[in-house]
Amino acid sequence: MFTRRTALRSGAALTGTLGAAGLAVPLLGGTEAGAAAPGEAAGQAGAGAAGFDVSALVKFTRPLPALPVLSPRRRTARAETYELRQRETECEIVPGLKTRVRTFDGCFAPPVIKAVRGRRTVIRQVNELTVPTSIHLHGGHVPESSDGGPMDLVQPGASRTYTYPNEQAHANLWFHDHAHHQESETVFRGLTGLICSPTRPSSGCRCPRAPTTCRSRSATSASTRPGRSSTP
């Protein structure tokens, strides 16, 4: 007999199958905007991934990178202002192979912003990707205009300023793309960041202290400018 329980089980099985197939797409060399197409130089996303022998990979040989901490472009008693540029770059996740990733300011290890309770964090997000984005602070208590709804898109070449009040209890939050039908792909490719939020003005935030780990052809020379990744 076909019952409600049978239908639910069938639906769950179908969802799991489709989900697994979707996760496999990037590994099979998908060619949506920004991805490398089959036939490109070996080692890049696409052709390189399709021919890679996973069994030959030696595990646990690379140190876990310390996360780069960003410095504000401007700081007042009431707000700290940042500018982040969303762009693609290449990084070496697997030794000897270059992977095309999407980043904030060329940082594949997620950048960290140290917030202060009662002092607003203002971030101007500039979209230099080939797809629209909408940046959402996951778990943040923010106004609707800065919530990064799935349909509240920032088109390629455009920018938007997000304001976070930092009036909630202490939390380590992450921000990520939230664009409708694009979020999982963009996050999978690396477009994420962290906000250590919020600490008291006098307490500081014990984030890792390390030089920037950003590696970008266009961003390396600019990584120490205000608003870019730098040693805290």
TrEMBL record:
Signal peptide location: 1-20
InterPro entries: Cu-oxidase-like_N, Cu-oxidase_fam, Cupredoxin, TAT_signal
GO molecular function: copper ion binding; oxidoreductase activity
Biased composition (Low complexity): 209-232
Domain Plastocyanin-like per the UniProt entry, residue ranges: 89-188
PROSITE patterns listed in its UniProt record: TAT
Alphabetized UniProt keyword annotations: Signal
Ranges where the record places region Disordered: 200-232
Pfam families in the cross-refs: Cu-oxidase_3 (PF07732)
Claim: DNA damage is one of the keywords in the record: no
Name of protein: Bilirubin oxidase
Organism field: Streptomyces albus (strain ATCC 21838 / DSM 41398 / FERM P-419 / JCM 4703 / NBRC 107858)
